[in-house]
Amino acid sequence: MREVYFIKQNKEKWLGIEQVIQGKIKKNPDDLSSLYINLINDLSFAQTYYPKSNTTVYLNHLSSQIFQKIYKTKRVEENRMLYFFKTEVPLLVYQYRRYLLYAFVFFILFTSMGVLSAIYDKDFANIILGESYVNTTIENIKAGNAVGVYQSGSTWGSTIGITLNNIGVGAKLYIYGIFGGVGSLYALLTNSVMLGSFQYFFYDYGALKDSARGIWLHGVFEIFAMVVEAMCGLILGTSILFPKTLSRFESLKIGLKDSFKIFLSTIPFTVCAGIIEGYVTRHALKMPEFLNLIIIFGCLMIIGFYYFVYPFIVNKKMNNNLTITKDAVL
């Protein structure tokens, strides 16, 4: 059979499967399995007669998508929350992994700008951090308590206030992405420049080590989550600017749904950061230094693994399951 005729004969069926994958057409698990088996047959035929064709690539991608939908449907019946964090979010992070890279590149660039600005303009920290904060912190440093600002207020009150503030900052980093991603980059710029000037301020007063022992106890989760939230804003913005073959509205719907799921995954880390800042950071300089390092690097390993390593593991496992299922059907 000629490839053109093969495409013409099955085009409507494949488009229908795309509608199912996008959620426009609802199917029960049995119907999904039938669609998958039918699609596998088409893929097998294409691999045999058109092995290097775009049709084969397209059908392979479509098979992967419908398999994920079947897998998701079965897993959701067991535990929706567990599936969300264990499989759904990691697969989305893998799919949009280049946006995470972009967000980190911009974060490093903007933070460096904050450091350089503080180096060449001694009043820059006062402008960015506020004179009251700077003066109070200088007094704390002179008193040998660089993290004294974190010791004010009650533990539970500080935790609630800090957590709500950080969630608000994260929401801005994400929602501002609606302006073509530029809004998210601006929000990331302001926060990163503040971080850079903040850290140089402590370095300039000889208290970088003490400040790092306290700030990064909660800062690892907080800052890493901030970068992921900026990533979500970039996904949202580019879904509007670059709809590809979809209509702009359809592209926005997909971008909004996917980015919002990734954004939700940052909330537990933001809450943990608030708890650490409210209850632990105030004791940073009284703790043994090795304990500070264990918490800091432990947090870094957890969140770094979840967003940088685990998505590749889940994607590989999904592809292996797809291959096994194909072989069993064929």
UniProtKB/TrEMBL annotation:
Would the keyword Membrane be found if you checked this record's keyword annotation?
yes
Q: Which InterPro entries match?
A: SpoIIM-like
Instruction: Name the UniProt key words of this record, in alphabetical order.
Output: Membrane, Transmembrane, Transmembrane helix
Q: Where are the transmembrane segments?
A: 99-120, 173-203, 215-242, 262-281, 293-313
UniProt keyword Disulfide bond present: no
Q: What is this protein called?
A: Stage II sporulation protein M
Organism, by scientific name, is Chryseobacterium edaphi
